[in-house]
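Lecture 7 notes: from sequence to structure.

We start with a single chain of 371 residues. Read the sequence below before looking at the structure.
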Amino acid sequence: MIGNDESKFEALLDSVHRGNVYFVTGKNGSGKSRFFSYATKEHFKNQVYKTAGINRIICMSGTMHDKYPPDIYKKSLSNESVIYLGNKVNNNMVSDTAPFRTLCKYILSNIANKVQLYGFSGDLISNALLRLNFGGSVVFKFRYGKNRKAEVFSSVSPELLVNLVDNVNDIGLIDKYIQHLEAGDILLSDVSFFRNDVPYGLAELSSGEKQYALALLGFIYCGSPGCILYYDEPENSLHPSWQLSVVNDLANIADKLFPSSILIVATHSPLIASSVRNERTYICDFPAGQSWQRSNLHGQASDTVLREQFHLYSARSPEVYIIINKCLDYIAKNETNSPEFNIYQNELRGYNLELQSDDPLSEVVTTILRF
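Now the structure, written as tokens:
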């Protein structure tokens, strides 16, 4: 079984192409997490497929308990070809602050190296912050490393105000913070974003706000031409409106900054699976799916996506509604012993509808299946 999985996973990896977005769907236990673990491990083992032009792998997660392999989350800080923006710090511990420590490093390095073109990238950053109703500045708060206070306190303060949008930062001061971070003299302890000039630390933000900020800013600052982004279950903690926009926002960032990048997203959400326009989007449903299929989900209603991609039906789904009416017709004509009624009855039973007792259709469906 494992060999069959790996053969399928390898074929899926070999058939991804730059500039596209790939969605992986399937029930819990169908292999999505195993695919992500296998794919990222293979990229790491092969030095991020440098021969294929993929120079960096970025791993994001909407869950505290993602299944990225230890090589990803333990070595990402020392190997810039792999960047982990999740919450795991080892096999048994998670941290809300850990991914922001990684993001802080790349934001400061980006500004210090003058990589950021404030006119163009600044617009993308402004849009990302606007999505969260945040201002253009952040405050990074640091604590001293063990026995390092004497080396640090006369050089830098515990707080650093950085403007992400306008080129008004003190590059020399930022260089000092980078040096102290690399030496282990200081460690990021918190990040404050501003809303109406009021600072909000990580503990004051909702989990959805932290996740959205990390996703968009993480891709802007940590992405690179030819990178591949993995995002596991982005829907967790996100309001439906943000589920509909988060991957599309990432795809727009890719279009403008990293057009040769690849996005691979594992999701249970019909809103996320249908959020990116069809001409650049492919989808694979586990466990049966053996290849990527061109998506036709963009613009479809959630109920349609639930039926077509997630194989979930309600008593209000058109297919189910038609069968219920046909069964009722046979009951009204007292023809419940006919082969046709049995066929429709079995088809209705096959949808495995789970109706609450207070649902008006619950008694109707129960009556039909009772014959």
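DSSP finds 14 helices and 13 strands in the chain. Keep this in mind for problem set 3.
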